[in-house]
Amino acid sequence: MAELNGGQLAAKQLKRAGIDTAFGVVAGPMIEVMAGMQAEGITVVNCRHEESACFAASAWGYIKKRPGVVVAGSGPGMINTITGLHVATESGMPLVVLGGSTDGRSRGLGGFQEADQVAFAKPGCKWTAQVDSTERIPELVHLALGKSIAGRPGGVYVDFPGHLVRKRVEEERAPLRESSPAVSRPHPDPATAEAIASMLATAERPLVLVGKGAAWADAVEPLTRLVNLGIPYVASPMGRGVVSDDNAMCMNAARSAALSGADTILMVGGRFNWIFQFGRAPRFAADVRLAQIDLIAEEMMNAANLELGMVADCALGVGAVVEALAGRALRSTGSGWLDSLASDARKNEAAIAAQMASDEQPINHYRLLRDVRDTIPRNVNVSVDAELTMGVARAVLPSYNPRSLLNSGTTGCMGTGVPYALGAKLATPDWPAVAIIGDYAFGAAAMEVETAARVGANVVFVISNNGGIAGHSIQDRMFAPGAPPIAALLPVDYERMGEMVGGFSARVTDPADIRPTLEKALAADSVAVINVITDPKGGRRGGVYLA
Ligand SMILES: Cc1ncc(C[n+]2csc(CCOP(=O)(O)OP(=O)(O)O)c2C)c(N)n1
Question: 519 alpha carbon to ligand 1 midpoint, in Å?
């Protein structure tokens, strides 16, 4: 009878669950797991840092709607995954970290890389567990994969003491678990659908808010039908593209007016957290009527004073509301609400038109993003990571597909942009992956350019190089005049990183070169690094905030 070690058992269960790609950093005591995965034909992407491995896996999992898997070594290796677990849980992205830990026999004695890893992981995770016998490894991997993706996706951690990874057991004593139960999605309550429909139909100024829960539920069709009845909508940063941004009802460009002017709002798959200013005045009207569709009932008594909550899959929930609206006239039709938002959107767009057309050098951020917008195809995955550049991207870059725009999101975590693009490219190899990254944010994960090149993930990295955190504006505004420039950076030749890994590289100082350079990069059969020298004094309409 065949004997298998714990690593081989974990790998077999992953393979059984359909995992074909995983991420990590090679380290003990998990080398047996990685070797087992390779033997099973799973592609293991060995990253340069565990945090980046988590972000890449989260993006891969979020796009593919499957658990992203990371394998990390003991002690510091595993502890480097905490940020990734926290971000995945907060952003609703499915991530399973399998972390090695010190041998049970040396625990409490100062064993090699000993740490209370489950305790480190717990607050950042939906679920944690520690392997207590080699025989149970398939079962615990099965539970971890299922829990990461059940309900609202998030981070899950399983701790693997080294001696249990190495131990060999008869295959029969560690049976694999079947891993695809047919679990139905939460269906909407018809009475609540009817009540939400009435709320929307009788509103003078209705508005739909779209969060990434709608993207996760693939609510494209019902949401498009809902807004096409004549209800304007605003999307959260990662809720963009569920309804294509070129829909006439998209009022992202009139966000402030839409949020504060609406008398009735339906939130779909988003949270009333800081991104939507807790659903409260002054961002919203003090007497606004609020309804919410979400998988999680607990979301509904958090911040905003909700009138109606529907616990349902967003696609099914919105579908039921659309059905309930059939044949009903909307009171808002012809009320001028849409026209007033559309004119506000046009005014806001006009206010940035000059900057978008600017030929100045150093390059204006709005001009950079306009030219990126005009060059990339509709079917593209884009990651954005920065402060100023991210804010400008939100205003300028549209999104046409759900789960195709990844940014620092709920946690505002710098360091996500490079690995998100790597994970996105591996998840959707036929689409280009373009990362728009501030020079500071690029530095947080820049060595993953080598990872991308090594695994043939031809990401196009576009660095907005304004020489520091939000250019010099933080330095100039918040530090004493003449103080050492700690928020400023050297004018680094980041494009050389493209060269360094045998890829495409270019430095762009003239705005006229942005488009042709990006076209070449998109056509290149390699990773590309474009270093765009942007204006250190550049700013953003509406001010700068540091997420
Ligand atoms: C993990 C983490 N550390 C620090 C920050 C604070 N922070 C937000 S954006 C940013 C850097 C912004 O500079 P850059 O990436 O160059 O983009 P720019 O704003 O200049 O376009 C920093 C340090 C953060 N959000 N997350």
Answer: 27
